[in-house]
Design goal:
2 copies of one chain form a homodimer. Chain A has 151 residues and is mainly alpha-helical. Chain A has 6 helices and 2 strands. A two-stranded antiparallel sheet of chain A has the order 1-2. In chain A, a hairpin with a 7-residue loop joins strand 1 and strand 2. In chain A, helix 1 crosses helix 2 and helix 3 crosses helix 4. Chains A and B meet through helix 1, helix 5 and helix 6 of A and helix 1, helix 5 and helix 6 of B. Chain A binds a DNA duplex (30 and 30 nucleotides) through helix 4.
DNA sequence: GCTTCTTGCTTGAATGATTCAAGCTAAAAA
DNA sequence: TTTTTAGCTTGAATCATTCAAGCAAGAAGC
């Protein structure tokens, strides 16, 4: 994988604001890409694709397909596609929902739970955010939160 | 497009660090997704796909295919695919490179340059980063720069 | 000079993620 | 009860992306 060089500069004049903002978008995308690559690499170690790893990561407990799709920010049909693969490997089961007979409840098998543990451990190692101190991560969190919640 | 709710919390204990870091990754991805959606929306207004818009954005001057592929962080074959579309619409031309007869030099036509102007204008409007002040954007820039340059 | 290797670009096949439309069942509302 | 909405699945279609292969031309070696 190749990376275009990114140069740092602080803009002060107003007309340069747009330019700086665009570069900032590039930085966000760049970091997001690194995170995505990181996930893909670690997922591959466990014979998972990136979406499968994302699904597994979000399976903190029994969830419905709809809920999982929301967490994965994708369509339910896409979630079906991904979950089919995981179920085919025996990592989880579709149980009937206790109160809603339309819904499925996704429950990890023992094997699935074990694999999830390994995945979470792998994801934590050499994180793309490791270059930032705890305080910096908190600051970043705050800024991103503000940017996102602005709409 | 739907968005899973994101809750804010500040972690202090060490074992919670990993959790906070993962949530931070989610935030970065979330913002990146918003930026990508923003680009896609604005691109669609000009009958462009997101990759086409990205290519157009990166065409600041005459560049080779390889250089464009680097800027777009993709394979040259992918750049060929995208540039074919733009060339087919008469937005740019493949000129022979002045010194390297293997290479192509991508040059915007007048129409292409005009469309690029409109695109850049659209991209600047209601940016996903508009919720942050200039100082906050600078701070974010610094943090992202540090995170990315770490590796 | 002549090889060998590398680089720039393109083509075509393949993959993989994603979306959409359609349909089914069941819950919820009227 | 009837109608509408929600959860899930299937299948077709799309789109971005990658990979392998190949061609042409520059670069480096002898």
């Amino acid at each position: 994988m190749k990376w275009a060089p990114i140069t740092m500069a602080v803009m002060t004049t107003p007309e340069a604001h747009a330019i700086a903002e665009r570069r900032l978008c590039g930085l966000v995308n760049g970091l997001a890409r690194r995170i995505a690559d990181h996930v893909r690499d670690r997922a591959a170690m466990l014979d998972l694709t990136a979406p499968q790893a994302t699904a597994l990561r979000e399976l903190t407990g029994p969830v419905t397909m709809r809920e999982l799709a929301d967490r994965m920010a994708c369509e339910p049909s896409n979630a079906t596609f991904v979950i089919d693969k995981l179920e085919g490997r025996g990592l989880l089961e579709r149980h009937p929902h206790p109160t809603d007979r339309r819904a499925k409840q996704l429950v990890l098998t023992d094997e699935g739970a074990a694999l999830r543990e390994r995945l979470m451990e792998l994801l934590a190692r050499e994180s793309p955010l490791a270059g930032l101190s705890q305080e910096e991560q908190d600051a970043l969190h705050g800024l991103l939160d503000k940017a996102i919640s602005h709409t």
